[in-house]
């Protein structure tokens, strides 16, 4: 048989007796200890009392056996719901497989001790920020559904419901009746709170309980309940006891009611008061509208009674005449300015015409140019036989300068006139001296004169074959 639990297999398991004995051996090696809890059940049997010790914060309990001598030695009688501290030794019963505590001493937890523990818990939660005002949520003005956690058939339930419905008859409650004192109070209240908090139609939750002794109100200072309220997403109203009672639930709740009746008045608005406010606001609005209408009507009468309203177009008529006069004056000035501008333009046109090169040409002058377009300014710039271009008032023609001599025939006037009028390749061009071409000279006086061997026909042919300028 395996010696250790880790060595057991499906082929070599431990019998139940072996496991029970090993558990008993392990538990027997535990030393005595002090444990605190709440007495749930108490059954004295002869010289031994059997009770169930429960944790006040969670749903866990252990069976305890204690001698009656130790119970009778307590300063106050032991009863259900009492908070006790006992010295015990854990034992394991192998036949039934149960664990229990064998107590040697039992002591009650005094009110002073409980208050001291509540004060320590209060400081701890305050340091964590559980009671901070910044985390508190506002109570809705008119909740669709109110969650109510209260005792079974309690006066606190009637106070909350009746006062709320007296103020707002249409209010709807979601009621959870739980134990509000005793060993199961914390567990039932926390479960009901979480259930109502998970319902989306519940807008606010009221935890209500009537007055009672300090020990009876201790569940509402329990850490598990305080943390459950702090984690709820729905606003919570605390209505525990009277105004002088102040459990820790009042500090963590989003709003504290002094009594359950006060909670019923706070959870919903007063319908009569709200109706009176609406009526008052409606009267104020009506009076304000009447005053505004009367003021506007008075102002309208004042405007209609003015002289200008008797003849509304009088102002328009006067302004129309002014506009017409200004328009006529502007037209007259614009026409005068246009006439002056036309006269100035005509004067400038005549000056331009008088000073234009074309007018000079029409007076009988001519412009003589080289083949490259340069104007002949000096007779020394003209060579004998050079083809020149002569521009007159109507057209142009080509000429070749020749030297002066007795043998040179004098040009005939008709021929020269005909050459000046000719255009194109078929016109006749005569050779003239540079002095007869206006401002140009035929040849340089420094060059020796020699008889010209060219004939008028050759000059004409050369002019015809040269690049002819266009008129």
UniProtKB/TrEMBL annotation:
Residues 413-443 have a biased composition (Low complexity). Its EC number is 3.1.11.6. The keyword Hydrolase applies. Keywords: Cytoplasm, Exonuclease, Hydrolase, Nuclease. CDD domains: ExoVII_LU_OBF. Its main location: cytoplasm. Residues 15-107 form the OB-fold nucleic acid binding domain. It is an enzyme of class 3 (hydrolase). It catalyses: Exonucleolytic cleavage in either 5'- to 3'- or 3'- to 5'-direction to yield nucleoside 5'-phosphates. Residues 403-471 are annotated as: Disordered. Belongs to the XseA family. This is Exodeoxyribonuclease 7 large subunit. It comes from Terrabacter ginsenosidimutans.
């Amino acid at each position: 048989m395996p010696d250790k639990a880790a060595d057991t297999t499906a082929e070599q398991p431990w019998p139940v007796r072996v496991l029970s004995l090993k558990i008993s051996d392990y538990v027997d090696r535990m030393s005595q200890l002090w444990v605190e809890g709440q007495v749930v059940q108490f059954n004295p049997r002869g010289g031994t009392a059997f009770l169930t010790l429960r944790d006040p914060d969670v749903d866990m309990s252990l069976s305890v056996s204690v001698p009656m001598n130790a119970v009778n030695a307590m300063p106050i009688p032991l009863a259900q719901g009492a908070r006790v501290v006992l010295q015990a030794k854990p034992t394991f019963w192998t036949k039934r497989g149960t664990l229990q505590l064998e107590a040697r001493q039992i002591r009650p937890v005094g009110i002073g001790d409980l208050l001291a523990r509540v004060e320590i818990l209060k400081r701890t939660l305050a340091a964590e920020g559980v009671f901070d005002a910044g985390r508190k949520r506002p109570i809705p003005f008119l909740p669709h559904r109110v969650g109510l956690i209260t005792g079974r058939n309690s006066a606190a339930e009637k106070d909350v419901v009746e006062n709320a419905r007296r103020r707002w008859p249409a209010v709807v409650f979601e009621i959870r009746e739980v134990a509000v004192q005793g060993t199961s109070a914390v567990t039932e209240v926390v479960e009901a709170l979480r259930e109502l908090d998970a319902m989306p139609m519940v807008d606010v939750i009221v935890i209500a309980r009537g007055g009672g002794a300090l020990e009876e109100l201790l569940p509402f200072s329990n850490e598990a309940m305080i943390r459950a309220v702090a984690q709820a997403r729905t606003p919570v109203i605390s209505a525990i006891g009277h105004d002088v009672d102040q459990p820790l639930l009042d500090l963590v709740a989003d709003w504290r009611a002094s009594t359950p009746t006060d909670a019923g008045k706070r959870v919903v608005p007063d319908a009569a008061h709200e109706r009176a406010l609406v009526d008052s606001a409606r009267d104020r609005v009506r009076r304000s509208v009447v005053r505004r209408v009367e003021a506007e009507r008075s102002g309208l009468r004042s405007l209609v009674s003015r002289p200008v309203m008797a003849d509304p177009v009088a102002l328009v008529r006067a302004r129309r005449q002014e506009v017409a006069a200004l328009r006529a004056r502007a037209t007259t000035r614009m026409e005068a300015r246009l006439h002056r501008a036309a006269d100035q333009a005509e004067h400038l046109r005549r000056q331009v015409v008088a000073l234009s090169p074309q007018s000079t040409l029409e007076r009988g002058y001519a412009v003589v140019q080289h083949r490259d377009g340069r104007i002949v300014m000096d007779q020394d710039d003209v060579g004998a036989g050079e083809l020149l271009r002569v521009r007159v008032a109507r057209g142009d023609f080509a000429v070749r300068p020749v030297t002066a001599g007795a043998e040179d025939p004098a040009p005939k006037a008709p021929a020269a006139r005909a050459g000046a009028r000719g255009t194109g390749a078929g016109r006749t061009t005569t050779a003239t001296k540079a002095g007869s071409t206006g401002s140009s000279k035929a040849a340089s006086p420094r060059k020796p004169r020699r008889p010209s061997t060219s004939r008028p026909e050759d000059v004409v042919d050369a002019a015809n074959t040269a690049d002819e300028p266009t008129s």
